[in-house]
Amino acid sequence: MVGYQSYLKDKNKEFLEKFSKHSKIAGVIFLLLGLVGIFYPVIMSLTTAYFVAFLFLLSGFMIAFHTYNTDKKDWLGWLKAFLYLLTGILVTIYPIPGVAALGIILAIYFFMDGFASFALAGQLKGQKYNWLIVINGILSIILGVIFLVYWPFGSLVLVGLFVGISLFFDGIVLLTMSSAIKKIDNTSDSSNQA
User: What does each C-alpha distance from 4 to 8, 163, 176 come to in angstroms?
Assistant: First the structure.
């Protein structure tokens, strides 16, 4: 039993070391991508549109492949594959309308998030941190309004800016986790030596 616990401890330590190393690498990459999105939001918006187009194209090919291998007469499967491929091709050829579509989708998301936050705040009425949920709801509604007011042309800047900010903070979180894991690992090593 002691040997098994030692084995698990070594495996956990190995996992934490790998996680810390890869979190640091990913964190730096996310920070750099985030900075590109913050300082060059139009480039990030277009990159996001092309990424979405790639996902549509890949999905279209996969649906066509699946339809071909399972039921070649399934016209709905072929139609779905065609629509995905067509959407991917159109966004690739005309990325700015694709960015505008992403802008309206984000506006809808922010409104839904805001109303969901208000509903949650209503359910948790009287709780200690209820005000944070209300503030989150207000900020989400404000972001939704900003996207709607400046839609469609503002989407070219706003989508890239928000993707950049999101990537930047994801990078900070990954670097913080990497640091925290190193501290935990160093603390456990020093307690084992004592």
Answer: 6, 45, 31
- Domain boundaries defined on the chain: 32-181
Q: What are residue 158's phi and psi, to 5 degrees?
A: -65, -45
pLDDT by 10-residue block (mean), the chain, 194 residues? 61 77 90 94 94 95 95 91 95 92 90 90 81 86 91 89 88 83 65 56
Max Cα–Cα distance, the chain, nearest Å: 71
Distance CA 122, CA 21 (A): 42
| CA–CA distance, 2 with 25 (Å, rounded to integer) | 35
User: Cis peptide leading into 95, omega within 30 of 0?
Assistant: no
A 10 A CB-CB count for 176 gives 12
Q: What is the DSSP letter of 180?
A: H
